[in-house]
């Protein structure tokens, strides 16, 4: 079975602005020009809490930008409530795709919408929920959310409360939902991977919603713990970017607002470290790569343990690979080592390829597969010593 190439996920994304309505009652007055200074996104100097979040809930890694917030990780979502017959969504992103959901149903997919206020109209007059979620990765791009706007005669209601349960998913393209909506494994067309990636139906998002949990999907395709896919971009790896709110901004650091304390962290890193042969000029042998992977992984767990405390459960996951068991063997050994040191809240989870069709782009898990993986993860989580 072939493994992921980074393809267009690492390239500049198309900046066309297209709207794909999924229901007749979704309509837009969107501007389709590229991102630029937008009065609706402009802020007041010294504003402590962005106005965009005064009436919108998010658990994602966002960074204040005046009245708006900026972000770049996949699966970031914003939830709100309103009364009336419509709602506007203030958005500025010419590189990523989004789903718009009303009362739990997707009413539109916004493809690289640019600077816009997207309007959903002609709803039943009453109270409704609205959710905006970033489908695609677009690691190097920055999106801006400017808040929800009530239609004439309506009102924005107080935002939903934070959920008590919180899960952080850390990983690569499998965690991001890379190409999971594709109906073919070959995705060579420009933008094809972006259009067919939907983090909102990845196994992490499905699992968290099934548990009634807030979540983050901090995933980066093609990245490993110490070695990226096929040795690309040596000197960087997943850990290079993990601490950032804006992935493509060197030195950026996400500032936890004090509300993010996940009781469960699920890590899926290792496919890219081990899926391809070591190339001439790379600084490893198979043995030293395993040693470097284990050492770096321990250091990463140390960081998570320091950040989230000794009670958080950390799941080190591995999965089937057709060409090697190095990933699963190393991940299992890491957990055994942690347990021997007295940390029994680090657990090992392996999911095999049974019933998976790998029908997504570049032989990645399909939407069908993500449902199965989510079910298996949910069963595993039920065995963990979580008090949430």
From TrEMBL:
This protein's superkingdom?
Answer: Bacteria
Instruction: Give TM regions.
Output: none
Q: Where is the signal peptide?
A: 1-26
Q: Which residues form a coiled coil?
A: none
| Keywords attached to this entry | Signal
Every copy of the Carbohydrate esterase 2 N-terminal domain together lies at 59-160
Q: State the protein's name.
A: Lipase
Species of provenance: Microbispora amethystogenes
């Amino acid at each position: 079975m072939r493994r992921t190439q980074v393809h267009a996920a690492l390239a500049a994304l198309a900046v066309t602005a297209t709207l794909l309505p999924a229901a007749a009652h979704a309509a837009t007055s969107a501007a389709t020009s590229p991102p630029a200074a937008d009065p609706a996104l402009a802020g007041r100097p010294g504003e402590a809490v962005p106005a965009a979040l005064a009436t919108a809930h998010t658990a994602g890694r966002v960074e204040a930008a005046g009245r708006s917030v900026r972000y770049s990780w996949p699966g970031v979502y914003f939830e709100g409530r309103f009364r009336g017959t419509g709602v506007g969504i203030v958005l500025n992103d010419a590189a990523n795709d989004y789903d718009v959901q009303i009362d739990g149903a997707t009413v539109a997919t916004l493809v690289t919408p640019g600077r816009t206020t997207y309007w959903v109209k002609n709803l039943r007059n009453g109270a409704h929920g609205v959710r905006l979620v970033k489908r695609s990765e677009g690691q190097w791009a920055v999106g801006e959310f400017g808040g929800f706007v009530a239609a004439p005669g309506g009102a924005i209601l107080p935002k939903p409360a934070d959920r008590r349960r919180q899960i952080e998913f850390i990983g690569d393209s499998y965690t991001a939902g890379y190409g999971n909506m594709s109906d073919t494994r070959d995705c060579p067309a420009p933008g094809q991977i972006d259009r067919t990636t939907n983090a909102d139906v990845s196994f992490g998002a499905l699992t968290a919603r099934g548990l009634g949990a807030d979540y983050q999907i901090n995933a980066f395709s093609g990245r490993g713990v110490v070695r990226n896919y096929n040795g690309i971009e040596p000197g960087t790896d997943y850990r290079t970017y993990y601490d950032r709110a804006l992935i493509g901004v060197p030195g950026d650091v996400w500032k936890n607002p004090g509300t993010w304390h996940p009781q469960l962290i699920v890590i899926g890193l290792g496919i890219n470290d081990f899926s391809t042969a070591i190339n001439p000029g790379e600084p490893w042998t198979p043995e030293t790569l395993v040693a470097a992977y284990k050492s770096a992984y321990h250091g990463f767990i140390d960081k998570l343990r320091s950040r989230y405390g000794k009670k958080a459960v950390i799941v080190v996951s591995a999965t089937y690979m057709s060409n090697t068991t190095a990933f699963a063997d190393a991940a299992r050994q890491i957990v055994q080592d942690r347990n021997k040191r007295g940390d029994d809240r680090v657990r090992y989870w392996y999911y095999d390829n049974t019933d998976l069709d790998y029908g997504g782009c570049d032989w990645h898990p399909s939407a069908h597969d993500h449902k199965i993986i989510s079910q298996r993860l949910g069963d595993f989580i039920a065995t963990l010593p979580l008090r949430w």
